[in-house]
Amino acid sequence: MLAMNYRGPYRVRVAHKPHPEILHPQDAIVRVTRSCICGSDLHLYHGLVPDTRVGSTFGHEFVGIVEEIGPDVTKIKVGDQVLVPFNIACGECVFCKQEMYGNCHESNAQATAVGAIYGYSHTAGGYDGGQAEYARVPYANVGPTVIPADMDPDDAVLLTDVVPTGYQAAEMAGIQTGDTVVVFGAGPVGIMAAKCAWLFGAGRVIVIDHVEYRLEFVRNYAQCEAYNFESLEDPVLFIKKTTAWLGADVCIDAVGADAAGSAMQTLTGRKLLLQAGSATALHWAINAVKKGGIVSVVGVYGPTDNLVPIGNMMNKGLTMRGNQTSVKRLLPRLIEHVQAGRLDPKGIITHRVPLEEVADAYHIFSAKLDNCIKTVLIPSP
Ligand code: NAD
Ligand code: ZN
Questions:
Q1: What residue owns the CA closest to ligand 1's atom 9?
Q2: Where in the chain is the domain with CATH 3.90.180.10?
Q3: Which GO molecular function annotations are given, in alphabetical order (predicted)?
C-alpha cells in the first residue's frame, strides 16, 4: 500500500509499505478514506519529538471503512464507516476507566506521560498512523466510532482530534458566563477553541497569532477579535489594557513548541528572540491572565521546554490545566453540536490533496502558505 513516510526533519514522501495485518484479536484494519495533517504532525516534521524513526508513517486524524476485524472485535463490523480518535486506548486501565483516554496506561509500552497516539513516534507507542491507504487500529472495541448516517465524513474526520481538542481547551479553561477568553494560536486548534469558547458562555473572545490570513479566517469563522502580535507593542500589555488592567479571565495556549521560535517582548518592552522549542505563548498566557485565573494548555511541548514564568504562576494564584484530549469522552456531545449546526468542523478545511502529494502538503501547512488552515489527504480509492 501507499503510505506517508518520514525520512528526517522536513523530509517526508510517499512510499510502498506492507498492507497492515491483524496482530491481536482486538485489532481492526481500516481502509482510510480521509486523513488530516495536524499541527502536532509538524512537531514530528520539525524533528522535535524524540524517537521519531525514519520510515514511520504519521497521521492520527483519520476516517475510513472497516476492512477486517480480529475475532474479539464486537463493537464494529466489516463495512462500517468509522472515525478513529487519535488516542489509542485500552478502555480497561485505571485512567481509561476515568475517561482519561489520552492517558491510557496500557497502550504505550514506553510508559511516558501519554498513552499511545497513531503515527506519533515511538515515544507515543510506535504505531503507524493513518496517512496511508490502510491502518491497523488496535483496541478496536474502544476507539473507532461509527459515523452517523447523516454526518459528512469531512465533519467526522475533524472529530478525531481538532474539534474535541478545541472543545477540551475551552472546557479545561473553566469559562464562566461573560468571561474574556484569550486564545494564543489561530491554527485549527486555536480556531476551534475560539469557536467553542462561545458554547461555554464567553462574553469576549480574543485570538492572538501573527499569520494574517489565519487572523482574518478566525475573525469570520469564530466571530471573535483577532490580533497580530507582531503589530502589538506587547501582547501581554495589550491584553491588560483591554481588560481594565485586570488581565483575561482565562487564557488558552493553542500553540505549543514552535520550531521557528518567535520574537517575544516582555512587559518592560525588552525584546528577546527565543530558541526553538521555547514556550512564548505559554509565557504570554501566564502573564496575561488575571490573578486567580486559569491557563489551559493544549499546545504540545517537549518535556523540557523552559522559560516558563513559574514564579508568576505561583504568585498570581493561577490554575494551570493541560492534557492530551480525551476524544472518546467528548464525542457524544460534539456529534450533537455538529448535528444541531452549532459547530461546522469542515468549514476549516482549505486543502484536499491526493496522498501522493504529501510532501508538498506538509511544506504548505508548515510554512503557512496558500492560506492553508487544514489539509485533508485523500488516498486513491
Ligand atoms: P498550527 O501549527 O497550525 O497552529 C499554530 C499557530 O500558532 C500558528 O498559526 C502559528 O502562527 C501560531 N503561533 C506561533 N507562535 C505563536 C505565539 N507566540 N503566539 C500566538 N500564536 C503563535 O497547529 P494546530 O493544528 O492549530 O495545533 C496547535 C497546537 O495544539 C500544537 O502544539 C499541537 O501539537 C497541539 N495539539 C494538541 C492536542 C492535544 O490533545 N492536547 C491535539 C491536537 C493538537
Ligand atoms: Zn492532531
A1: 187
A2: 2-161+326-378
A3: oxidoreductase activity; zinc ion binding
Superfamily of domain 166-322: NAD(P)-binding Rossmann-like Domain (3.40.50.720)
156/72 Cα distance (integer angstroms):
25
Could you read off the pLDDT of 62-79 as tens digits, one per residue? 999 999 999 999 999 999
Q: 348 in ligand 1 pocket by Cβ < 6 Å?
A: no
Handedness of CA 275, 276, 279, 281 (dihedral sign): positive
pLDDT tens column, 237-269: 999 999 999 999 999 999 998 755 433 333 333
Does the interface predicted TM-score (ipTM) exceed 0.90? yes
Nine-digit cell at 181?
477568553
The fold of the 2-161+326-378 domain, in CATH, is Quinone Oxidoreductase; Chain A, domain 1 (3.90.180)
Ligand 1 atom having least distance to the Cα of 38: 25
Per-residue cell: 158 = 475533524
